[in-house]
Structures are given as C-alpha cells and as structure tokens.
Amino acid sequence: MVKELLRSHTSVRKYTGEKISKETVQDLIETAQMAATSHFVQAYSVIWVTDEEKQQKLGELSNNPFQFQTAGAAFLFCVDFKRLQIAGQKQGVEIVADSAENVLVGVADVALFAQNFVIAAESEGYGICYIGGARNNPEEISELFDLPDYVFPLFAMTIGTPTKRNEAKPRLPLDAVLHENSYDVEKYDQLLDAYDATLEQYYASRSSNQKIANWTKQMADFLIEQRRPFIKDFLAKKGFTWK
Ligand SMILES: Cc1cc2nc3c(=O)[nH]c(=O)nc-3n(C[C@H](O)[C@H](O)[C@H](O)COP(=O)(O)O)c2cc1C
User: DSSP secondary-structure letter at 149?
Assistant: First the structure.
C-alpha cells in the first residue's frame, strides 16, 4: 500500500482551492517531524503561509504564481540553525553554525522532513508541488517572512485537493541509478538513449501539455549555465560562508 502510493506520485499544480484545516496541517507536520534527522539536530522550520497577500507574494517571488492561487495551503521550508544557536547559548556555548557541513546537514534534514510531509499528505488524497523557485528571490522571501540569520529558505510547497492528476512520469531505468559494488560510468551511453526514447514517447502521448522533448536535451538546456549564481552570497549573508 505504501509502495503503491510512492509509485503513483506526480506533482500537482492545480487545486480546487478548498482550504486545509489547521488540524490537518498540524497532524501532517507532526508526522513529518518523525523523519530521521542528522545527529537529532532537527534543523528545519516551516512557515505556514495563511496570509493571502503573503501567499500571493510568495507565488510571485517564486515565479510560480499559478499554483499558489488555487492551493489549499502553502508552506516555506527552511534550513534552521537559529534554534540550535539558542540551544547552545542556553548551555553557555557559541555553536559553530557556519560550515559547509552544516549546510549539507540542514538541506538533508529539510528534505527528509518535507518528503515525510508529502507522503503523509498524499496518503490522505492531497496533491503537492515542491517550489524550488523560492530560491529565485531568497532575500526578498527572507524579509517577507522575517527569517533571521542562520535560517534560509530551501523550497516552498503548495498542497491541496487536485483538480486532476497527471500520468506518472517515467524515471530513469533502474540500472542507471543502481550500481553494484562499484560505480559504472560505461553503461550510461546506452541507458540514456533508451531513457530518451521512453520520455519522448511519454511527452508525446500524455493527456495534457504534450511536447517533443527528451531527458538529455532537457538536462543539457537546464545545466548549460550556472543556476542561481547569487545563492553563495545570499547564504553568506545568512551566516553560512562554507567554512
Ligand atoms: C526540490 C524541488 C523543487 C521543485 N521546484 C519546482 C518548481 O519551482 N516549480 C514546479 O512547477 N515544480 C517544481 N518541482 C517539481 C518537479 O518539477 C517534479 O517533481 C519533477 O518534474 C518530477 O515530476 P513529478 O513530481 O510529477 O513526478 C520541484 C521538485 C523538487 C523536488
């Protein structure tokens, strides 16, 4: 049952607009909190955006306004070392928050927490969409939600009752991601050709937004230049200089 749920995941970007109750949100967040967390640091905070104006602004700043308009709830998931700094101060210690390692720890913690939230929400029939677009304007978003130093937005998320569910998007072939005992770079040439063919067929025949596209071209177009080059400076302003 859990596996079927996981295998049927698709992102949802259009919802009925029906608001999600406080009780449901609290239940989903508490469930998410049971995700494993590196060294028990629990380095995440989530802003539940109930103010309509802020929700709309978050959509605009994320360059994804459309799904925020119909969402039943919207969230901003943040890496959080502020609470850990305060924990240290309670013990008379100034913690070393600023390190590349802590950024990795925080990102892993938020991702696991968020994905637990997603699975819990999908198990109740809701649809979700992660919004990495929240990193397009991280300074403005930090200001909008009063994020202090040592707290930065990793992604936003919309959730709601779907108006329609897309067909599941085929993932890479198993052999492309599963290596036995040692990493095999040789196998990609063939496997990626096969995957391009699979995705070309998927994009050409899916029920909405049909297009001519394949995976290697999509990835090449996406990664041809540095993405969000301002992030390093933004993180430094938040207290993470990658020491
Ligand atoms: C961290 C993260 C950030 C994402 N950001 C966006 C986004 O800004 N806008 C969007 O429409 N989808 C976003 N997505 C959704 C992905 O595009 C989607 O998961 C991927 O294309 C696979 O499709 P599926 O989720 O329907 O299987 C994001 C997903 C993740 C995990």
Answer: T
| CA pair distance 206, 32, nearest whole angstrom | 32
Query: Which residues, in sequence order, are bridge partners of residue 36?
Result: none
Radius of gyration, CA atoms only, the chain: 20
At residue 109, the pLDDT reads 98
Q: Is the pTM of this model over 0.85?
A: yes
How much of the chain, in percent, has pLDDT values that exceed 90? 97
May I ask the CATH architecture of the domain 2-166+225-238?
A: 3-Layer(aba) Sandwich (3.40)
**239 close to 148: Cβ distance less than 8 angstroms:** no
Distance CA 192, CA 194 (A): 5
CB under 6 Å to ligand 1: residues?
9-11, 13, 64, 129-133, 155, 169
Burial class of residue 9 (count of CB atoms within 10 Å of its CB; 0-12, 13-18, 19+): middle
Candidate from 11, 115, 119 with most ligand 1 atoms within 8 A of CB, to mutate? 11
- Predicted local distance difference test score (pLDDT) of residue 243: 86
Q: How confident is the model at residue 242 (pLDDT cuts 50, 70, 90)?
A: confident
If phi > 0 it is left, if psi is from -120 to 50 it is alpha, else beta; for residue 88 that is: alpha
Mean pLDDT score of the chain, rounded to an integer? 97
Torsion of CA 161, 162, 167, 168, to 10 degrees: -40
d(CA 130, CA 12): 9
- Ligand 1 centre to CA of 169 (Å) is 11
Mean pLDDT of 208-213: 94
